[in-house]
Every structure is written in C-alpha cells, then in structure tokens.
Amino acid sequence: MIETSPTRMNLLTRRSQFALASRGVDLLQKKRDALVREFFALVRETIEARKELNTFAREAHEALLPAKSFDGPQTVEAVSLSEPLISSAEVEFRNIWGTRVPRLSVDWPHGPAASPIALGGRTVAAQASFKKLSRALIRMANTESRLRRIGEEIKKTARRVNALEQAVIPGIRSQIRHIEQVLDQQEQEDIFRLKRIKGKIGAGKS
C-alpha cells in the first residue's frame, strides 16, 4: 500500500477516488453483462451458421461431380472463372458498449455470367450451389469474428473488474481507514491537551 499523509485533504481525495472506482466497477459490470448476452446470442447464431455451411458445402460438392461428368471439367472451370465471387466488400463496425465489433458487408453479382441455355442443367445447378456456399462462408466468417472479438472484450473487462474489486478498491478503503484512525487519534490528543491547558489555567487563577 502506498503511504499517504494522514491529512483531511488526503482523506477527501481518497473518498473521491473510492466513489469513482465504485462507479467504474458498476459500469464495467454492466458492460460485461451486456457483452455476455451478446456473446451467447452469437453462439446460437454461430451454431446455426456452421450447420448451414456444412449443408451447403455438401450440396455444392454433390452438385459438382455430375456437372463435371456431363459438361466436362473444362466447361465447369470456365464457368467458375467467368463470374467474380463478389462485386465488392467492406468492413462495417457495430458499437457494443464501446467495443467495435466488425462485420463484412458484401455485394454479390446479379445474374449469371453465362447464358443458362449454353450450359447443361447440372452445371447451372452446381453454380447456384456454390453461390449459396459463398454466402454461407461470409455469414460464418462474420459470426465467428464477432464472437471472437466480443469474447476477448469480455475477458478484458472481467480483468478490469477484478483489479478494481480485489486490489484498487480494497487499497483505497484501507488508506481511508488508516487516515481516519490517525485523524481520530490526533483529535483525541488535541482534546486531551486542551483539557490539560484549561486545567493549568484554572489552577493558576486559583
């Protein structure tokens, strides 16, 4: 504990610090609770996104094999290279109790790059399946990145709460108690000295 001069000014300062630290704990606890609620909501969303991703990955794989068999690997590869995966993408941020949570916003191409008439039905189906898979991948990336970011912030906030509750606030409380004890003792000594002085004065007059 840092030694503090037992003065009334320091007592007022420590009491102000104690009130500020207590308010800080309250705000951090509210932030932690809000982040925990968001975290568990994202856990459910992540589980759903993972299931969706696995489903679309299986469907895309199953659609790819017949497309290559009927239209040929070269045709399927040419179709896959003829259309960009995404038109554009940018990272957006959502603010949750001061925590910037990222989200990837994607614009997807509209319409097929090649005429469906020039392609076999199985290749068109495979193309549609991989578009679904691409969207599922973006959703999965968004939920997992937000989940990771919020999880890190929960840990950081919990460490701050623990530091305030277990070290800072007890230390300030101990300093306040020490100063109060010293000031009380000084006050008792001052009263005792005054009584002695009054006694001497009274004895001198008599």
Architecture overview:
This protein has one domain (8-192): Orthogonal Bundle (Helix Hairpins). The chain has a two-stranded antiparallel ribbon with strand order 1-2. It is built from 3 helices and 2 strands. The longest helix is centred in the C-terminal third of the chain and has 85 residues, at 121-205. The chain is mostly helical and 206 residues long. The chain has helices spanning 8-71, 73-82, 121-205; strands at residues 88-96, 99-107. Helix 1 (8-71) runs antiparallel to helix 2 (73-82). The protein is rod-shaped.
Question: What is this structure, in a nutshell?
Answer:
The chain is mainly α and 206 residues long.
CATH fold name: Helix Hairpins
Q: What proportion of the residues form beta strands (DSSP E)?
A: 5-15%
User: What is the first-to-last residue Cα distance?
Assistant: 52 Å
Strand elements, count = 2
- Poorly predicted tracts of residues: none
By oligomeric state, this entry counts as single chain
CATH class: Mainly Alpha
The CATH architecture can be named as Orthogonal Bundle
Structural class: mainly alpha
Which features would summarize this protein structure in a list?
2 strands, mainly alpha, Helix Hairpins, two-stranded antiparallel ribbon
Helices and strands in order, then pairings?
Blueprint: H1 8-71, H2 73-82, E1 88-96, E2 99-107, H3 121-205
Helix pairs in contact: 1-2, 1-3
